[in-house]
Give the backbone structure.
Amino acid sequence: MSSEGEVVFQRAAGRSPLVISLPHVGTAIPSEIARRMTPRARQVEDTDWHVDQLYRFARVAGASWLEARLSRYVIDLNRPPDDHSLYPGQASTGLCPTATFAGEPLYAAAPPAAAEVAARRERYWLPYHEALRQLIAEARARHGFAVLLDAHSIRSVVPRLFAGRLPDINVGTNDGRSCDPPLAAALVTRLAAQRDFTHVLNGRFKGGYITRLYGEPQAGVHAVQIELAQAAYMDEAGHGFEDGRAQPLRDLLRALVAILLEFRPLGAAPGGPA
């Protein structure tokens, strides 16, 4: 929660080592910010649409859950607090974005100045990361390690951010630094065993700030980002969601989440702390 009571996130502690972060599913924009934005900005078109619905089963399976409620247009919870670029030389979006993925302005007049960015960081960004740290620490205390899944989606074609059509499933491990290699290998092996969805490991999306910051295998935290192409499960034009259309991808995600739930790093005792 923020200092003035806005709902910044929804948090649920689980019983397994798995923690799921959903930093871009929120659509809320505080009124004092929304009134300065363009009509297009208020449509929040760059939301990670319906990712919470795709992974809802994981809460029943015992995963801890942290779901953002505010739009990424307010503040991007998966960006560094100093706003340095995660992909130098490539188009990206900032801590407090000023344009849509298509490059259209978000603000009808002046974008937020440095003082406002700092205030949003304190009011919205910090509480989310404090909650995420707590969930990870709780999982490590129970099991001796934690597995973090940072769950995302994006339109399958965004020329400003990447060329061509994005693979359906994009697994990021910060080029192998955010989790033990056997975990990434198990995910890729399962993806290679099916033919319905294309996939890539450490392609255009190698893992954002959350994956890079919290993924410390040597400290017992194994982080993976999964970025989904929205065309794999929904109507991208209207943002509509149909369970029947999404079910094949959800079934595959169940298999991937099962791998995350069953993973045990070398030296971890089954069912308890290492």
The mean pLDDT is 93. Residues 268 and 274 are 4 Å apart (CA to CA).
